[in-house]
Fold this protein.
Amino acid sequence: MAKKNRILITGAAGFLGSHLCDRFIKEGFRVVGMDNLITGDLRNIEHLFKNPDFEFFHHDVSTFVHVPGELNYILHFASPASPIDYLKIPIQTLKVGSLGTHNLLGLAKEKKARILVASTSEVYGDPLVHPQTEEYYGNVNPIGPRGVYDEAKRFQEAITMAYHTYHKVDTRIVRIFNTYGPRMRLNDGRVLPAFIGQALRGEDLTVFGDGSQTRSFCFVEDEVDGIFRLLMSEYHLPVNIGNPSEITILEFAEEIIKLTGTKQKIIFKPLPQDDPKQRQPDITKAKTLLGWQPKVSRREGLKITYEYFKSLPQEVLYQREHKNFDQYIK
Ligand code: UDP
């Protein structure tokens, strides 16, 4: 029997990381998961612990990363990923995107592994080009509340390209747009868990600003498939992976009201600083280079996600803060 490939996935206990672990186990890989559990949750991967092809290291990748044995692939998905997380743990957000990426590129060089780093639509900031193509340089405020995430991810892209050019490391960069699905943290402040959590608790839905800002939501299974295809491709420049179906946040709130059948109403709250006004990926590259496009409609994806949130224990529904933050906030 052919030897199985071994892949390191950082951020393995997070939303995207845990789905990636599942996908790579399914594809016949040996998976090494790594997470410091600031925002990740072991419950997302506990079903994998009995699998002989899965190992887990509790480690912060912003410090030196050591993995014994061979590695064929690395996926760097460790990072806080929600605007309220960046506000609470800004230094950790900067470190994992910069120092963490540096450590993992060094590991990839040492192990001669192919590495894919998780970048983001946030590199486009509050975009002045619509929809966003990979060629657009972005409109980012470096000192705004989102700057710690956006600039760390922009640095991440720069250092990844530098390792590609100067050290000939085999690199991939995915720019991920808003993604949703089971295992999102109900209390992470992002719009989908916020609205569904509010509906489940019988609270009004809080639309920020007038709700005319847009987003484009991709179901996690589609996102993971795009990432898988990019890793297996020979293309080293950034590729947008997201769902181009764009919707205003007000319309999105109305969809959640319909989905959940809540009798609550929409209330308006101030728009956070530097909140992007519009966001939609141009996925021409993903289509032509990877033969990828999303398959799951928002209707189907939201239904699956709602069922997941409904199945969570009551205490999770009322837990406002993430339990692991306290120990990291000094
Ligand atoms: N938003 C909202 N109500 C909420 C949470 C978020 O109206 O309770 C808005 C937010 O201002 C933004 C959009 O929803 O315009 C998406 O926010 P999210 O935090 O999910 O991610 P972003 O795409 O801004 O990084």
